[in-house]
Amino acid sequence: MIAERATPEGRPQRSNRAEIRNPVLELPAARLLATIAPDTRTILAFLLHDLQQDARSRSRRSWDRRKAFMAAYWAAVATYIGHILRALGGTRADRRRKPLLVRQAGFPDLPARDWAEASRCYGERRDRTGLGATEFPEGEIIIGDTVFARISYNGRIWLAGPWRPGDKPLYDNRSAISGPQ
User: Fold this and answer.
1) What's the burial of 28, exposed, middle or buried (CB within 10 Å: 0-12/13-18/19+)?
2) Is the pTM of this model over 0.85?
3) Does an H or E element contain 142, and which?
4) How far apart are the C-alpha atoms of 26 and 19, rounded to whole Å?
5) What is the phi-psi region of residue 90: left when phi exceeds 0, alpha when psi lies from -120 to 50, beta otherwise?
6) Which residue has the higher pLDDT, 17 or 31?
7) Is 130 left (phi over 0), alpha (psi -120 to 50) or beta?
8) Which distant-in-sequence residues (6+ apart) come within 8 Å of 59 by Cβ?
9) Binning pLDDT at 50, 70 and 90, where does residue 127 land?
10) Distance of CA 157 to the CA centre of its chain
11) Range name among 20-34, 96-110, 144-158 with the lowest pLDDT average
12) What is the pLDDT of residue 179?
């Protein structure tokens, strides 16, 4: 491991300072992120992490298709989302914990790390019970006290609220099985 170097005055070298490694920290609005309620910060962090993963995936697909400009664009998007995530604060343990709860009437809550795990846990529970679509309750996905999505019997995840024609799932377990993660 490389020792952290300091200037003669005892300050960390410029390259080791947080605001140099993460330029978003220098923006005035970044300081406001620390004042947001913890549950709201958790929701934001979860959604930003999901956006970052999508941007990285798009960058890889663009490189594979020899579309260098789009690959660079999506890589930059992923980088800046990462900077914003770190500006939200939190420890490494916060990033490893399971922020989602799958809640169903008559069953204990299931913690989940991401959409795929929430869908998988719901599906495993559905399969263990052997109940059909009319008897097995839909699941709600909760962060803190906020319900922001629901899981239908088939394991797809939708925005909270009733389904309307034309709605697209937030997470489709059919495409996730064969598609990139």
Assistant:
1) exposed
2) no
3) strand 139-143
4) 6
5) left
6) 31
7) left
8) 70, 71, 72, 73, 74, 75, 77, 78
9) very high
10) 14
11) 20-34
12) 39
Distance CA(173)–CA(124), nearest Å, equals 13
Tokens 């003669």 identify what position? 8
CA atoms within 13 Å, Cβ hemisphere of 55: 17
User: Contact at 8 Å (CB) between 140 and 147?
Assistant: yes
Q: State whether residue 9 is helix, strand or coil.
A: coil
Interacting residues of 38 by C-beta distance below 8 A, sequence separation 6+: 144
SS3 93: helix
- One-letter identity of residue 29: A
Beta bridge partners of 12: 6
Distance CA 100, CA 117 (A): 9
Report the C-alpha gap between 18 and 48 in whole angstroms.
20
The Cα 157–Cα 73 span in angstroms is 28
Residue 79's CB: how many other CB atoms inside 10 A? Answer: 14
Contact status, residue 42 vs residue 143, Cβ threshold 8 Å: yes
